[in-house]
Amino acid sequence: MKKLLIGLALLPLAGCISFGADAPDSLLSLTSTEQVPVGQAQSSAGARTITIQVPNVPQALANNRVPVQATATDIAYVKDAQWVEPPARQFARVLSDTVGARSGRVVLSGAQSFADPGARLAGELRNFGIDAASSSAVVTYDAALVRDEGGAVEKRRFEARVPVSAIEAGPVGVALNQAANQVAVEVADWVGR
User: Fold this and answer.
1) Which of 24, 25, 121, 174 is the most buried (most CB within 10 A)?
2) CA–CA separation, 192 vs 50, rounded Å?
């Protein structure tokens, strides 16, 4: 009886306990502007292959929040803005879609590449957030490309800056999506040459 009374006394508090932050109203995601058409067959017998790895990221990007570079040494995060999944994985998917569509290469996943990985694209996503001083979305990708087995490593830095109207979830998501696609197009053209 005593346990039942304690349980009933704690029941009103159950609605007050929270084990994490409230989820935002919506989550941000990236969408490729260029994709291989649905139903188009691809074969490594007639086209070169490439394996695209998920880029490494600094700690500020190793979460689902959108960083804002407030000053040279201060980073904040956009209020109520969260990615549906880590930005590095989404960016790798945008790269894969764009490279496949623009270069004609067959893009392989890590699991598919064991027999013949073809060219290999890796890199570091150094910036994927907002620069408060210029009110712009910034995507910086340091790419490393090996075009063929045993070949030399080519490195190149790509960057896109897109103005953002307000540092809020909606405008930030749109600007980062546009900047990510701009970088992906430049990388695809570099890979395809």
Assistant:
1) 121
2) 10
* Overall number of domains in the chain: 1
Contact 17, 10 (CB under 8 A): no
Place of tokens 């945008």: 94
DSSP letter string over 59-100? GGGSSSEEEEE-SSS-EEEEEEEEBSS-HHHHHHHHHHHHHH
Q: Measuring CA to CA, which residue among 151, 139, 150, 147 is closest to residue 66? A: 139
User: Which CATH number fits the domain that encloses residue 74?
Assistant: 3.40.50.10610
Give the integer Cα–Cα distance in Å for 66 and 34.
24
- The length of the chain is 193
Domain that holds residue 161: 46-192
